[in-house]
Design a protein that fits this description.
Length: about 130
């Protein structure tokens, strides 16, 4: 079982930037595809972005493409989410998630994640 812990959330003004981190307990971290999801009050949890095992294959939701960047450091068992040009509608609890994949070059999925962090709050003020 994989434990995931998010950090880096906070309060920023619209147009600002924030970087989230997700630390994984799993020593075979590179065997997992990683994703970021978010949930705003009164809304369903939604997919934000995912990255494949190697860190080279990514998939971004249209709402964040061009503003957010996902990356991973397999040596540090950590995945990051760099968020730029933040908007009030980005306000949500952001969750880190993971699933084990057999292929090094497989593109990450948008669903079917098995492990989840507890989330970190991101608030963007206008």
């Amino acid at each position: 079982q994989v434990q995931l812990v998010e950090s880096g959330g906070g309060l920023v003004q619209a147009g600002g930037s924030l970087r989230l981190s997700c630390a994984a307990s799993e020593r075979t971290f590179s065997d997992y595809c990683m994703g970021w999801f978010r949930q705003a009050p009164g809304k369903e949890r939604e997919f934000v972005v995912a990255v494949g095992r190697s860190g080279r294959s990514t998939d971004y939701a249209d709402s964040v493409k061009g503003r957010f960047t996902i990356s991973r450091d397999n040596a540090k068992n950590t995945v990051y989410l760099q968020m730029n040009s933040l908007k009030p509608e980005d306000t949500a609890v952001y969750y880190c998630a993971a699933y084990r994949d057999m292929g090094w070059y497989t593109a990450p999925k948008r669903s079917g994640y098995d492990y989840w962090g507890r989330g970190t709050q991101v608030t963007v003020s206008s």
